[in-house]
Amino acid sequence: MIELTDTNSAAIAAEFVRARTKAGSPAMGMVMTLIIVVDEAEAEQAMHAARAASHEHPARVLGVIIGDARGAGQVNAQVGTGSGWTGETALIRLKGEVVKHPESVVLPLLLPDSPVAIWWPCDPPQDPASDALGALAQRRITDAAAAQRNRTRAIHLQCAAYAKGNTDLAWTRLTPWRALLAAALDQHPLKVTGAAIAAERVSPSADLLAAWLTDRLKVKVARSSSDGPGITEVVMETKEGPIRIARPDGKLATFTSPGRPDRPIALKRRDLPELLAEELRRLDEDDVYAATAHRLSKMQARS
Amino acid sequence: MTWTNPLRDPEDRRLPRIAGPCGMVLFGVTGDLSRKKVMPAIYDLANRGLLPPGFSLIGFARRDWADQDFAQIVHDSVKAHARTEFREEVWQQLAEGFRFVPGNFDDDAAFDRLRRTIEELDEARGTGGNHAFYLAIPPGFFGDVVGQLQEHGLTEQGDGSWRRVVVEKPFGHDLDSARELNNILADVFPSGSIFRIDHYLGKETVQNILAMRFANELFEPIWNSNYVDHVQITMAEDIGIGGRAGYYDGIGAARDVIQNHLLQLMCLVAMEEPTSFDAESLRIEKQKVLSSVVLPRRLDLTTARGQYAPGWAGGEKVSGFLEEEGIKKTSTTETYAAVTLYVDTRRWAGVPFYLRTGKRLGRRVTEVAIVFKRAPHLPFTATATEELTQNALVIRVQPDEGMTIRFGSKVPGTAMEIRDVNMDFAYGGSFTESSPEAYERLILDVLLGDPPLFPRHEEVELSWKILDPILDHWAKKGKPEPYASGGWGPESADQMLARDGRVWRRP
Q: Of A154, A268, B29, B447, which is the most exposed, with the fewest CB atoms less than 10 Å away?
């Protein structure tokens, strides 16, 4: 890692090239730029997750720490390649006036012609698509479950502000649940007459799951509170009996379906790097999330 | 009206494919293949949540084991070879579905027990009568096992349920034996239920050949004899035959590798665009390539074979093939084979495909190199381009999976001097947990009943038709030429290319 103090984008870009040459010009196999907008406190964990995800998606990772807006503008950066990263990385600290213009620092550092993804590991802007940095990216990843302000409403705000390319890790966390539920209906081609979800009181994922099931199955989905962790049970009622997936411990679930013996199935809560890697796998619009977000907003408006 | 699952949406590409309820019966549980590949792959699939709830694994072998002993074997192999993290809860739910049936392949009582075990699992774990029989045993026993399965009613597919059989190479040792083997399987299983594993086809980089060729505009226009000078397909191993003398002696490099892996790679490189990516369309295109392959007239000048001699490889003293345990001093089995093939189509007329494979070579590498013709005119002085060779596009299948393009570039300085440079693309996901191992992909495809990545018997037979005349020719020629361990094969292989005015690429 090279420390650059009171620097600018051109110097950071030059350092990228210098570091690459120094490492014996390894191939530029990077497929995207990933911007991470993060607090000082969360920066280390977020960069760690990005490093793990970079193995599947070699990227130029730009961590942006927005500091105190008072005083004269200053840009400091740590730039590096290697040491566990498959691409290049810069952790950029902004202070003073420049805090209001972070896009001016980031724009010159985007890889030519490749996709840009942005991730807010904790508090996202209310409307990511019109955020100055968010507007640079075609994939905008928020995490309603990690929001520190407005926790109960975070997912509703995100869904209301949905724009093409937005996605939330609360949705990513649902993929294994959704896969199992879809597989259950492959095995039991039955009409679902009702559904119920039990989860922690505040669970953006459970809200999204309820919206998805409502949207797809056209039934009312009951929601009850449990001690968690996360979602603990999902039931789909059919005329032959309930299809139930219960996961009390966040690891192992029991799968119950009509006319079949109960079966255990691993359904572990996934770590951040895994979620991020899934999110970066596809950079086009997620139509199913769009429909689900739309549904959740409608459900919220009605209640 | 057909049922459509309301939770499925073709747009919803996050949802992974999870196999329906099913189980697998594994014959040959103590072999290397089972322990190093099949068992770890099953665990990895479970860990990724891709196996159905209640998935069951039955081991069948001539051992006096209880279910727990079998579970212990699987446990050890998973601990040693699985690619994903070991998680107790995944293991527990998987291990509940393990059963072991002791017995010989000719033991009626054992197959009766197997049937009862399957029925018990259908009842207790909900496997729904869907079972795949994985024959990780020498092909000599296929007949016995498949016959027994049929006799005991284990191959009957009930209403809405399936039975499949999975076999590994070698698919015979010549055309006749391949046909015989296929007849044994085809008597009992319909051809759509027979899955031949060529693990190369499960590799990401091999599938990427199709993506590279048919998703891009850049390569297709030059992918023909107007621009391509020749193609080299190499699969080199740095190890000797190890403890596999019993299998290897009498088989040799050509049967072991060229007949299946290299000819399949060649098909993917040479074939025309399939109308779609389903199994049938792919097979049609691959079959067209294989049936248009012609051998050169003079096999003595266009093929080469060798046996590794004692020496030093990679800093270690190693013994020669004829000194390996279990190999006769008079063995004529080749450990290196190189052949020249032509594909008689408009696209490939006059472009030789050089296929080579060997043991105890310089390093372990598999790659496909498309070598292009020289530029028809070079507006430089002869000295300026002295170091410029031919442009090449190299698909690195393993290790270091990715692609290299070699082209000429000016050497920095005041004089105009042009030299070869390489541009590399590393296939990012290949080394991470997240990219599935070939066996995972293939086993999942078996359980899903998705056949595009499995060679059909027509392809196997056509491959033998190509190789048989070469093998016959070699059989008349006595002993293969010895070559130095740790190098790049026998002298005759270099001469074989030199005659055409070409050289082997150092991979």
A: A268
